[in-house]
UniProtKB/TrEMBL annotation:
The keyword Ubl conjugation does not apply. The chain crosses the membrane at residues 33-50, 62-80, 111-131, 138-158, 195-214, 244-263, 278-295, 324-343. The lineage of its organism: Bacteria, Bacillati, Actinomycetota, Actinomycetes, Kitasatosporales. One of its GO terms (cellular component) is plasma membrane. This is Xylose transport system permease protein XylH. Part of the binding-protein-dependent transport system for D-xylose. Probably responsible for the translocation of the substrate across the membrane. Keywords: Cell inner membrane, Cell membrane, Membrane, Sugar transport, Transmembrane, Transmembrane helix, Transport. Its main location: membrane. PANTHER family: ABC TRANSPORTER PERMEASE PROTEIN YPHD-RELATED-RELATED (PTHR32196), XYLOSE TRANSPORT SYSTEM PERMEASE PROTEIN XYLH (PTHR32196:SF32). The keyword Transmembrane applies. Pfam families: BPD_transp_2. GO terms for molecular function: transmembrane transporter activity. It comes from Streptomyces sp. R44.
Length: 351
Protein backbone atom coordinates (compact mmCIF):
# COMPACT_ATOMS: atom_id res chain seq x y z
CA UNK A 1 0.00 0.00 0.00
CA UNK A 2 1.22 3.50 -0.71
CA UNK A 3 0.13 6.88 0.61
CA UNK A 4 1.85 8.88 -2.15
CA UNK A 5 -0.98 8.70 -4.72
CA UNK A 6 -3.23 11.79 -4.63
CA UNK A 7 -6.91 11.24 -3.80
CA UNK A 8 -9.12 11.10 -6.87
CA UNK A 9 -11.91 13.19 -5.29
CA UNK A 10 -9.66 16.09 -4.35
CA UNK A 11 -10.27 15.63 -0.62
CA UNK A 12 -7.25 15.47 1.69
CA UNK A 13 -7.67 11.95 3.13
CA UNK A 14 -5.65 10.94 6.20
CA UNK A 15 -5.16 7.39 7.44
CA UNK A 16 -7.42 7.13 10.52
CA UNK A 17 -4.73 5.14 12.34
CA UNK A 18 -2.55 8.28 12.22
CA UNK A 19 -5.22 10.61 13.58
CA UNK A 20 -4.58 12.04 17.01
CA UNK A 21 -7.35 11.42 19.49
CA UNK A 22 -8.09 12.53 23.01
CA UNK A 23 -7.99 10.22 26.06
CA UNK A 24 -11.77 10.67 26.37
CA UNK A 25 -12.34 9.39 22.83
CA UNK A 26 -10.01 6.44 23.51
CA UNK A 27 -12.02 5.65 26.63
CA UNK A 28 -15.34 5.89 24.78
CA UNK A 29 -14.02 3.57 22.09
CA UNK A 30 -13.29 0.75 24.58
CA UNK A 31 -15.73 -2.18 24.08
CA UNK A 32 -16.11 -2.79 27.83
CA UNK A 33 -17.09 0.79 28.75
CA UNK A 34 -20.84 0.08 28.73
CA UNK A 35 -20.43 -3.03 30.89
CA UNK A 36 -18.29 -1.15 33.43
CA UNK A 37 -21.04 1.46 33.79
CA UNK A 38 -23.59 -1.34 34.13
CA UNK A 39 -21.49 -3.17 36.73
CA UNK A 40 -21.19 -0.01 38.81
CA UNK A 41 -24.96 0.52 38.63
CA UNK A 42 -25.66 -3.08 39.70
CA UNK A 43 -23.17 -2.78 42.58
CA UNK A 44 -24.75 0.45 43.87
CA UNK A 45 -28.25 -0.98 43.49
CA UNK A 46 -27.62 -4.10 45.59
CA UNK A 47 -25.46 -2.18 48.08
CA UNK A 48 -28.56 -0.09 48.80
CA UNK A 49 -31.25 -2.78 48.83
CA UNK A 50 -29.27 -5.66 50.43
CA UNK A 51 -27.48 -4.98 53.73
CA UNK A 52 -25.32 -8.11 53.64
CA UNK A 53 -24.14 -7.42 50.08
CA UNK A 54 -21.25 -5.26 51.38
CA UNK A 55 -20.10 -7.77 54.00
CA UNK A 56 -16.50 -8.94 53.41
CA UNK A 57 -17.65 -12.57 53.25
CA UNK A 58 -19.96 -11.68 50.35
CA UNK A 59 -16.97 -10.65 48.22
CA UNK A 60 -15.66 -14.21 47.97
CA UNK A 61 -19.13 -15.56 47.20
CA UNK A 62 -19.79 -13.03 44.43
CA UNK A 63 -16.35 -13.52 42.86
CA UNK A 64 -16.77 -17.31 42.93
CA UNK A 65 -20.15 -17.08 41.17
CA UNK A 66 -18.62 -14.74 38.59
CA UNK A 67 -15.57 -16.93 38.05
CA UNK A 68 -17.55 -20.07 37.18
CA UNK A 69 -19.18 -18.07 34.36
CA UNK A 70 -16.14 -15.97 33.54
CA UNK A 71 -13.81 -18.91 32.83
CA UNK A 72 -16.05 -19.87 29.91
CA UNK A 73 -17.07 -16.33 28.93
CA UNK A 74 -13.45 -15.49 28.03
CA UNK A 75 -13.02 -17.99 25.15
CA UNK A 76 -16.66 -17.52 24.09
CA UNK A 77 -15.94 -13.78 23.76
CA UNK A 78 -12.85 -14.47 21.63
CA UNK A 79 -14.91 -16.79 19.46
CA UNK A 80 -17.59 -14.12 19.03
CA UNK A 81 -14.94 -11.53 18.11
CA UNK A 82 -13.90 -14.07 15.49
CA UNK A 83 -17.47 -14.06 14.19
CA UNK A 84 -18.68 -17.47 15.46
CA UNK A 85 -20.79 -19.08 18.22
CA UNK A 86 -20.51 -22.30 20.19
CA UNK A 87 -23.83 -23.62 21.47
CA UNK A 88 -22.16 -26.80 22.77
CA UNK A 89 -19.97 -24.96 25.31
CA UNK A 90 -22.26 -25.58 28.31
CA UNK A 91 -22.73 -29.30 27.73
CA UNK A 92 -19.04 -29.71 26.86
CA UNK A 93 -18.17 -28.75 30.46
CA UNK A 94 -20.24 -31.68 31.74
CA UNK A 95 -18.84 -34.03 29.08
CA UNK A 96 -15.31 -33.19 30.18
CA UNK A 97 -16.11 -33.97 33.82
CA UNK A 98 -17.89 -37.23 32.91
CA UNK A 99 -14.94 -38.49 30.85
CA UNK A 100 -12.49 -37.82 33.71
CA UNK A 101 -14.67 -39.50 36.30
CA UNK A 102 -15.79 -42.56 34.32
CA UNK A 103 -12.36 -43.29 32.80
CA UNK A 104 -10.66 -43.11 36.20
CA UNK A 105 -13.33 -45.24 37.91
CA UNK A 106 -13.72 -47.91 35.21
CA UNK A 107 -9.98 -48.27 34.63
CA UNK A 108 -9.16 -47.97 38.37
CA UNK A 109 -6.45 -45.55 37.29
CA UNK A 110 -4.91 -42.57 38.99
CA UNK A 111 -7.39 -39.72 38.54
CA UNK A 112 -4.70 -37.70 36.75
CA UNK A 113 -4.85 -40.25 33.94
CA UNK A 114 -8.57 -39.60 33.60
CA UNK A 115 -7.94 -35.84 33.69
CA UNK A 116 -5.40 -36.19 30.86
CA UNK A 117 -7.71 -38.36 28.75
CA UNK A 118 -10.49 -35.84 29.33
CA UNK A 119 -8.27 -33.02 28.04
CA UNK A 120 -7.55 -34.93 24.82
CA UNK A 121 -11.21 -35.82 24.28
CA UNK A 122 -12.42 -32.27 24.98
CA UNK A 123 -9.84 -30.70 22.64
CA UNK A 124 -10.82 -33.23 19.97
CA UNK A 125 -14.43 -32.04 20.20
CA UNK A 126 -13.21 -28.45 19.76
CA UNK A 127 -11.25 -29.49 16.67
CA UNK A 128 -14.35 -31.30 15.39
CA UNK A 129 -16.46 -28.13 15.70
CA UNK A 130 -13.83 -26.01 13.96
CA UNK A 131 -13.15 -28.58 11.25
CA UNK A 132 -16.85 -29.05 10.46
CA UNK A 133 -17.37 -25.28 10.34
CA UNK A 134 -14.50 -24.60 7.97
CA UNK A 135 -15.13 -27.63 5.74
CA UNK A 136 -18.91 -27.50 5.35
CA UNK A 137 -19.30 -23.67 5.37
CA UNK A 138 -22.48 -24.18 7.40
CA UNK A 139 -23.27 -21.53 10.05
CA UNK A 140 -21.66 -22.16 13.43
CA UNK A 141 -25.16 -22.07 14.91
CA UNK A 142 -26.09 -25.25 13.02
CA UNK A 143 -22.76 -27.04 13.56
CA UNK A 144 -22.59 -26.45 17.30
CA UNK A 145 -26.32 -27.05 17.80
CA UNK A 146 -25.73 -30.52 16.34
CA UNK A 147 -22.76 -31.03 18.67
CA UNK A 148 -24.85 -29.81 21.61
CA UNK A 149 -27.57 -32.39 20.91
CA UNK A 150 -25.10 -35.21 20.35
CA UNK A 151 -23.20 -34.48 23.55
CA UNK A 152 -26.43 -34.19 25.54
CA UNK A 153 -27.46 -37.65 24.34
CA UNK A 154 -24.00 -39.14 24.88
CA UNK A 155 -23.74 -37.73 28.40
CA UNK A 156 -27.02 -39.31 29.45
CA UNK A 157 -26.82 -42.50 27.42
CA UNK A 158 -23.24 -43.47 28.26
CA UNK A 159 -23.58 -42.55 31.94
CA UNK A 160 -26.66 -44.78 32.36
CA UNK A 161 -25.05 -47.54 30.29
CA UNK A 162 -21.83 -47.59 32.33
CA UNK A 163 -22.97 -46.51 35.82
CA UNK A 164 -26.58 -47.68 35.74
CA UNK A 165 -27.74 -44.27 36.96
CA UNK A 166 -27.72 -40.66 35.72
CA UNK A 167 -24.68 -39.79 37.86
CA UNK A 168 -21.12 -41.07 38.07
CA UNK A 169 -19.63 -43.04 40.94
CA UNK A 170 -17.61 -41.19 43.56
CA UNK A 171 -13.85 -41.09 42.93
CA UNK A 172 -13.01 -39.24 46.16
CA UNK A 173 -11.04 -42.20 47.58
CA UNK A 174 -8.96 -42.81 44.45
CA UNK A 175 -5.26 -42.08 44.05
CA UNK A 176 -4.45 -38.57 42.85
CA UNK A 177 -7.80 -37.09 43.92
CA UNK A 178 -6.41 -34.78 46.68
CA UNK A 179 -3.78 -33.19 44.42
CA UNK A 180 -6.25 -32.77 41.55
CA UNK A 181 -8.77 -31.22 43.91
CA UNK A 182 -6.13 -28.80 45.11
CA UNK A 183 -5.53 -27.57 41.55
CA UNK A 184 -9.14 -27.36 40.38
CA UNK A 185 -11.36 -26.93 43.45
CA UNK A 186 -9.38 -25.73 46.46
CA UNK A 187 -9.99 -22.58 48.46
CA UNK A 188 -7.92 -20.19 50.58
CA UNK A 189 -8.91 -17.86 53.40
CA UNK A 190 -7.51 -14.34 53.22
CA UNK A 191 -8.49 -11.80 55.85
CA UNK A 192 -11.35 -14.01 56.99
CA UNK A 193 -12.79 -14.22 53.45
CA UNK A 194 -12.82 -17.54 51.59
CA UNK A 195 -11.68 -17.42 47.97
CA UNK A 196 -12.00 -20.34 45.53
CA UNK A 197 -9.14 -21.24 43.19
CA UNK A 198 -11.44 -20.70 40.19
CA UNK A 199 -11.01 -16.96 40.78
CA UNK A 200 -7.28 -17.34 40.04
CA UNK A 201 -8.03 -19.40 36.92
CA UNK A 202 -10.47 -16.69 35.80
CA UNK A 203 -8.07 -13.77 36.32
CA UNK A 204 -5.24 -15.68 34.62
CA UNK A 205 -7.35 -16.51 31.57
CA UNK A 206 -8.55 -12.90 31.23
CA UNK A 207 -4.94 -11.63 31.37
CA UNK A 208 -3.77 -14.25 28.84
CA UNK A 209 -6.65 -13.57 26.43
CA UNK A 210 -6.13 -9.79 26.67
CA UNK A 211 -2.44 -10.20 25.89
CA UNK A 212 -3.24 -12.44 22.91
CA UNK A 213 -5.85 -10.03 21.54
CA UNK A 214 -3.80 -6.85 21.90
CA UNK A 215 -0.17 -7.98 21.59
CA UNK A 216 0.04 -10.96 19.27
CA UNK A 217 -0.42 -11.74 15.58
CA UNK A 218 -3.07 -14.32 16.45
CA UNK A 219 -5.07 -11.54 18.14
CA UNK A 220 -4.96 -9.51 14.93
CA UNK A 221 -6.13 -12.58 13.03
CA UNK A 222 -9.12 -12.97 15.39
CA UNK A 223 -10.29 -9.40 14.77
CA UNK A 224 -9.64 -9.78 11.04
CA UNK A 225 -11.66 -12.97 10.54
CA UNK A 226 -14.50 -11.53 12.63
CA UNK A 227 -14.54 -8.32 10.62
CA UNK A 228 -14.63 -10.13 7.28
CA UNK A 229 -13.29 -13.61 6.53
CA UNK A 230 -12.86 -13.03 2.77
CA UNK A 231 -10.95 -9.77 3.26
CA UNK A 232 -8.79 -11.40 5.95
CA UNK A 233 -8.00 -14.34 3.66
CA UNK A 234 -7.06 -11.91 0.88
CA UNK A 235 -4.30 -10.41 3.03
CA UNK A 236 -2.91 -13.77 4.10
CA UNK A 237 -4.72 -14.49 7.36
CA UNK A 238 -5.13 -18.28 7.92
CA UNK A 239 -8.88 -18.12 8.51
CA UNK A 240 -9.45 -21.85 8.97
CA UNK A 241 -6.60 -22.30 11.45
CA UNK A 242 -7.72 -19.25 13.40
CA UNK A 243 -11.28 -20.50 13.77
CA UNK A 244 -10.22 -24.03 14.69
CA UNK A 245 -7.87 -22.54 17.28
CA UNK A 246 -10.72 -20.51 18.78
CA UNK A 247 -12.91 -23.60 19.13
CA UNK A 248 -9.99 -25.41 20.81
CA UNK A 249 -9.72 -22.48 23.26
CA UNK A 250 -13.39 -22.94 24.15
CA UNK A 251 -12.78 -26.66 24.63
CA UNK A 252 -9.74 -26.06 26.85
CA UNK A 253 -11.68 -23.75 29.18
CA UNK A 254 -14.58 -26.22 29.20
CA UNK A 255 -12.06 -28.80 30.42
CA UNK A 256 -10.97 -26.50 33.27
CA UNK A 257 -14.60 -25.83 34.26
CA UNK A 258 -15.43 -29.53 34.00
CA UNK A 259 -12.57 -30.55 36.31
CA UNK A 260 -13.71 -27.93 38.82
CA UNK A 261 -17.22 -29.39 38.67
CA UNK A 262 -15.95 -32.92 39.23
CA UNK A 263 -13.47 -32.22 42.03
CA UNK A 264 -15.87 -29.92 43.88
CA UNK A 265 -18.61 -32.56 44.26
CA UNK A 266 -16.80 -35.92 43.66
CA UNK A 267 -19.64 -37.01 41.33
CA UNK A 268 -21.21 -35.52 38.19
CA UNK A 269 -24.85 -35.47 37.09
CA UNK A 270 -25.13 -36.24 33.37
CA UNK A 271 -27.86 -33.64 32.75
CA UNK A 272 -25.89 -30.64 34.01
CA UNK A 273 -24.69 -27.79 31.79
CA UNK A 274 -27.72 -27.51 29.49
CA UNK A 275 -28.53 -23.81 29.04
CA UNK A 276 -25.23 -22.50 30.39
CA UNK A 277 -23.99 -21.78 26.86
CA UNK A 278 -26.51 -18.94 26.62
CA UNK A 279 -25.23 -17.45 29.90
CA UNK A 280 -21.66 -17.44 28.53
CA UNK A 281 -22.81 -15.73 25.32
CA UNK A 282 -24.89 -13.17 27.23
CA UNK A 283 -21.91 -12.35 29.50
CA UNK A 284 -19.80 -11.70 26.39
CA UNK A 285 -22.51 -9.53 24.81
CA UNK A 286 -23.02 -7.53 28.02
CA UNK A 287 -19.23 -7.10 28.04
CA UNK A 288 -19.33 -5.37 24.66
CA UNK A 289 -18.81 -8.16 22.11
CA UNK A 290 -20.70 -7.65 18.87
CA UNK A 291 -22.86 -10.56 17.71
CA UNK A 292 -21.72 -9.77 14.16
CA UNK A 293 -18.04 -10.25 15.14
CA UNK A 294 -14.88 -8.15 14.85
CA UNK A 295 -15.39 -6.16 18.06
CA UNK A 296 -15.09 -6.91 21.77
CA UNK A 297 -12.62 -7.65 24.56
CA UNK A 298 -11.73 -10.30 27.13
CA UNK A 299 -11.94 -7.73 29.93
CA UNK A 300 -15.49 -6.93 28.88
CA UNK A 301 -16.46 -10.60 29.20
CA UNK A 302 -15.03 -10.54 32.75
CA UNK A 303 -17.14 -7.52 33.64
CA UNK A 304 -20.19 -9.22 32.11
CA UNK A 305 -19.53 -12.29 34.28
CA UNK A 306 -19.10 -10.06 37.33
CA UNK A 307 -22.52 -8.51 36.66
CA UNK A 308 -23.95 -12.03 36.60
CA UNK A 309 -22.25 -12.85 39.89
CA UNK A 310 -23.45 -9.70 41.62
CA UNK A 311 -27.01 -10.11 40.35
CA UNK A 312 -27.39 -13.81 41.21
CA UNK A 313 -26.02 -13.36 44.74
CA UNK A 314 -27.49 -9.88 45.25
CA UNK A 315 -31.00 -11.25 44.79
CA UNK A 316 -30.27 -13.85 47.49
CA UNK A 317 -28.82 -11.25 49.88
CA UNK A 318 -31.85 -9.02 49.29
CA UNK A 319 -34.04 -12.05 50.16
CA UNK A 320 -36.00 -11.75 46.94
CA UNK A 321 -37.62 -14.58 45.06
CA UNK A 322 -34.85 -15.99 42.77
CA UNK A 323 -37.44 -16.33 40.02
CA UNK A 324 -36.73 -12.64 39.31
CA UNK A 325 -33.16 -13.49 38.23
CA UNK A 326 -34.18 -14.15 34.61
CA UNK A 327 -36.03 -10.83 34.49
CA UNK A 328 -32.90 -8.96 35.61
CA UNK A 329 -30.87 -10.99 33.12
CA UNK A 330 -33.03 -9.98 30.20
CA UNK A 331 -33.17 -6.33 31.28
CA UNK A 332 -29.36 -6.17 31.66
CA UNK A 333 -28.85 -7.73 28.23
CA UNK A 334 -31.10 -5.18 26.54
CA UNK A 335 -29.64 -2.22 28.43
CA UNK A 336 -26.05 -3.27 27.78
CA UNK A 337 -26.69 -3.79 24.08
CA UNK A 338 -28.44 -0.43 23.72
CA UNK A 339 -25.71 1.36 25.71
CA UNK A 340 -22.93 -0.18 23.61
CA UNK A 341 -24.73 0.76 20.39
CA UNK A 342 -25.20 4.34 21.61
CA UNK A 343 -21.54 4.69 22.62
CA UNK A 344 -20.28 3.37 19.29
CA UNK A 345 -22.58 5.77 17.43
CA UNK A 346 -21.28 8.69 19.49
CA UNK A 347 -17.67 7.69 18.85
CA UNK A 348 -18.20 7.33 15.09
CA UNK A 349 -19.98 10.70 14.99
CA UNK A 350 -16.99 12.46 16.59
CA UNK A 351 -14.36 10.96 14.24
Amino acid sequence: MSSSAPPSDGVDHVDERLLRTTPLKKLLARPELGSVVGAFAVFVFFAVVADSFLNPSSLGTVLYAASTIGIMAVPVALLMIGGEFDLSAGVLVTSSALVSSMFSYQMTANVWVGVGVSLLVTLAIGVFNGFMLTRTKLPSFIITLGTFLMLTGLNLGLTKLISGTVSTKSIADMEGFPSARKLFASEATIGGVEFKVTILWWFGLVALATWILLRTRFGNWIFAVGGGADAARAVGVPVHRTKIGLYMAVAFCAWISGQHLLFSFDVVQSGEGVGNELIYIIAAVIGGCLITGGYGSAIGSAVGALIFGMTSKGIVYAEWNPDWFKFFLGAMLLLATLLNAWIRKRVEATK
